[in-house]
Specification:
The structure is a single chain. About 70% of the residues lie in helices and about 0% in strands. By secondary structure, the protein is mostly helical. It has 3 domains: about 100 residues, no CATH class; about 90 residues; about 80 residues, no CATH class. The chain is globular.
Length: about 325
Amino acid sequence: MRCGMKDDLYAYGDARVRCHEASLLTRSFLESLIASSGMEEAFALLGSHGWSLPEDLDRNRLLSDREEQVWEEVKELVKDGNVLDLLTVKNDFYNLKAALKALVSSRDAGGLWLFPTSLDVSALPEILAKKDYEKLPEPFRKAAGEVYSMLVNTSDGQAADFYLDRAALLRQTELAGLTGSEFLCRWALLDRTLTDLRVALRCAELGVEKDRVFSALAGTDAMPADLLADAAVSRESVCAFAAERGFDEAARAASGNDADFEKYCDDAQMRLMKENLVRALGVEIIVAWWFAAQTEIKAVGIVLQCKALGMDEAASERIRELYV
């Protein structure tokens, strides 16, 4: 666990985040939220815990406002652009994908965006329509042109998805390395590995041919893309390969259903993030708090959605592991 001059730059931000950690939601609070009598009481509980409540009690606005509040705090505390880009890169490539698909199908991409994002989504549709790719940040220029041609010439939406999702993973790994943080490199590698497994499982279920599976995988030293593509003939084969490569827990989770594996992936990343609870200094503390806040926002969203559908009893089992 390194501690140096660069870590000292985050002393103020780390102290501020330690205060924020004290107000993160606990499992017991979420159980109280699940047990609340209705949406109005649930909102009141969140308000008593420091959440800003929209006047119309719109749950989507509640969640988006909270996400924006968290991101504004992160931007204030983190001055390393590579770290900020690392946290938005998956949303960035998703937004590029959404804008390109909307363009070729003559639809409006508004309402499809994921936030936070480093892309100017208000300008993105026009940039793509004019093929003015030089106005995009450099990492997105080539991808935009190639995927546009792919969609126009072949109408192959799956290939476009594979291309951009893989590009996001590769860029995520690159950005993690640029931060100089060993921890953030490990996090990016874990996410890359689990995402590749997720892709292999999906391809196995759909019967996707090996060459196409290979093109979708980022690959890692521990789980090479060519070998994982070979294994993607059935769910059982993917799980066996993962176990052979030392990913026993992932293999067990993947042998169940997709929901079980998705929860395992989220929980595995949270367990890694918890290493920062005992870290002395560093931007990693801020990143871990951001990840924790994102997880609790998703958890609240699950609870409120289940409550709106009258399915309170289903919420508890869907909630991911929390930071505190």
